[in-house]
Every structure is written in C-alpha cells, then in structure tokens.
Amino acid sequence: MRSKSATGPPPAADGHERQRRTVGLRDVARMAGVSTATVSRALNAPERVSAALRERVAAASARLAWVPDAAARALATRRSGAIGAVFPTLSHGDFARAAEALQGELTGHGYALLLACSHYDLAHEHLLVRQFVERGVDAVVLVGNAHDPQTIDLLERRGVPYVKTFNHDPEWRHHSVGPDNRRAMHSLTRYLLRLGHRRFGLIAQSSRNNDRAAARLEGVRAALSEEGLSVRPQHFVEGRWSIAEGRALFERIIEKRPWPTAIICGNAYLAVGAVLEATRRGIALPDEMSIVGYDDIEIMQELPVPITTLRVRSDEVGRVAAAYVVDLLAGRQPSTALECEVEIIERSSSGPAPRASR
After folding, report:
1. In 3D, which of 299, 303, 312, 304 has the Cα closest to residue 345?
2. H/E stretch holding 114
3. Residue whose C-alpha is closest to residue 195's, from 344, 45, 14
4. What SS3 state is found at 32?
5. 80-179+315-340 and 181-313+343-357 share one CATH topology?
6. Which CATH architecture has domain 181-313+343-357?
7. Taking the CB of residue 246, how many other CB atoms lie within 10 A of it?
8. Domain ranges, ordered by start, for the chain
9. Cα separation of 261 and 313, whole Å?
C-alpha cells in the first residue's frame, strides 16, 4: 500500500469547503444589492445604517453561508467586536439575569459577549481581565467597586473602557451602574421599623471581596442606629449564598431566647433557607417572626410562606451597562441614568411585630 506523504498536496476540498473559500464580501454586497462599503458598515457600525439595510445584508450573508473573518476585521478596524464581562458567579439570580440582558443589548449593537466568573476572588478576576485584554476585547464589564488595583491599572494603561455594575456610588470617580446597596437595605430596615420591630437578627452575606454586601450591612446598621438600636452579637451571623447555609445560620440565631422579631437576610438564597427552617420548626411567619431578603428569585414567591424582599432590577443593570459601554466605544457621552432603583416586594413572610415585643 502506498504511504501518504507528509509533504504531499492536501486532499481535494469538498463543495462546502470550496464555497467557504471563495465567498467573500463582494459576493454578499452583490446579492444584497449594495456596495461593499455598506456591507462593511452594517457589520462594523450597524447603528450607521438603516434596519432595512442591515436585514438585507444579514439575509444575503445567511444565503451564502458567509461569516466575516473576525481576525481580518480586527486588523482593519482595531476592534474585536467583543466585550468581556466578569461576574463573581452566575448561580445568583441577579447576575444571571443581568448577563442575559447584557448579551441581548450588546448583540443588538453587533457585539459578542465573553463571560467569566471570578468566584469572589480578586486575584482570579485580575487574571481573567488580563486574558480578555490579551484577546483584544473592546471593553470590560465588572461587578462592584472593589478590585485588585492591578486590574484597574491594566485597563486604564491599555485604554480599555470599562464599567462597574451592581453598586452605584455617586461619589466614585469611575461610573458605576446599579442599585445603591446601602440606601436599598436602609429602606428595607425602615420598613420593618415602621411595622414595630425592635429586635433584629441579621443573616449577612460575607463581605469578603464583596463591597455590595458591605454596603447592605452598613445600610441596616445605619437605619437601626437612627432609632438607637443595634443587632445583638448572638443575632448576627454571616455566610455566602446557599439555601442550606441559610437554614444552618437561622438555627444559630434562634438557639437562645428572646428571639429577634425580624430577621434580615443578605441575599435570596439565605432568605429561602431561613424561611424553610422556620417553617420546619413550626415558627409562625409573620405572627411570631418576620423574615425578609435581598433580590427576588422565583422560588421566593412559590414557597408556602412567600418571602418579602428587595427586588433588584438586574435586567436593567445589564441593559444600562451595555448601553453605557456602546456609547463609550462610539465616542458619545453616555446619556443613560446610572442608578437602578430597587423596590420592596411585600409578601406574607413579614408583618407587624408581635404585640408582646413592642
């Protein structure tokens, strides 16, 4: 049998391979009935052509099975058409919803979204951002205001635009999109105070590498301090974000009486765990105790005792962040409001403080 030569000619290309090699920008322009410059604008600056023209170019590209050469386009435009986003995790409802909205908005402007998770590790976040920059992303979306100083230095020295999300702070010199976490939790605490509660428990989310959690904690303490109140040490526990952890932390709070009449949870999963454990132990909500959370995931309204919570408009955070980045890359002054409001969703896990405790 004749052996194949390592230096011999490559095998003949099939029809599909020949088509991929021969179809180009001119063919798409000819089929769409437009110039090659118009095709290029439709791909690289879609906002500069009409929707009808974009549809014609897209239809011609689809019919010819043509995909633009991203590497060649990046060399010509000095843009990759990609935006990098680093989230702490995608297991949280708010981050997952924001990522979907961010992708949808960016796709509409012709950008691809690259996603990564840092797991609340600032050194790992720096590595991920560095990898994005090495791959030529046009901009980066981050979460929160707390980052390794090297991360921000890298982006600024390389001239890569970025936006911070989920912790709007008007005093911060870099624009940040999202809710004011301190103000939001302050308002939730004031809501419970108006219901007559004076003994509070707090199942806080860990503030390690998480300035959003730290701001929420500050909001609770500030609201209580205004009334001369504070959380007793035995009624303060801290965890991360699992339902099982919420159950275990709730157990620790109720080890000794008197119990708090209201427990504030730092995220949705901790709140779900606390409510499930309270129900298992036969604690009547809200007659004996109120439990509230932060963020609003679907299960919170489907439990036997639906949970009062602060709803973060995470999809709005994603859309606003995308619009902000697109404006920056187009050389426009961002015009959108950067603070995203939150609202208290009142359900049956909260109510007036027990009369005997007032």
Report:
1. 312
2. strand 112-117
3. 344
4. helix
5. yes
6. 3-Layer(aba) Sandwich (3.40)
7. 29
8. 80-179+315-340, 181-313+343-357
9. 28
Task: Compute the distance between CA of residue 17 and CA of residue 81 in angstroms, rounded to an integer.
Answer: 26
114-141 confidence digits (pLDDT tens): 999 999 999 999 999 999 999 889 999 9
The CA distance from 263 to 197, in Å, is: 10
302 secondary structure, DSSP code: T
Q: Which of 211, 117, 224, 119 is nearest to 167 (CA)?
A: 211
- Coil, strand or helix at 14: coil
Beta 82-87 vs 262-265: how paired, if at all? unpaired
Distance CA 164, CA 178 (A): 8
CA distance 310 to 175: 23
- Please give the CATH topology (third level) of the domain spanning 80-179+315-340: Rossmann fold (3.40.50)
Render the burial of 289-316: b for 16+ CB within 10 Å, e for the rest: bbbbbbbbbebbeebebbbbbbbbbbbb
Give per-residue pLDDT as tens, 221-245.
999 999 999 999 999 999 877 899 9
d(CA 210, CA 181): 12
Helices marked H in the chain: 15-22, 25-32, 36-44, 51-64, 70-77, 93-108, 122-134, 149-158, 181-194, 211-226, 243-253, 268-280, 314-329
**Placement of tokens 């303060």 in the chain:** 236
Q: Is the pLDDT of residue 12 over 50?
A: no
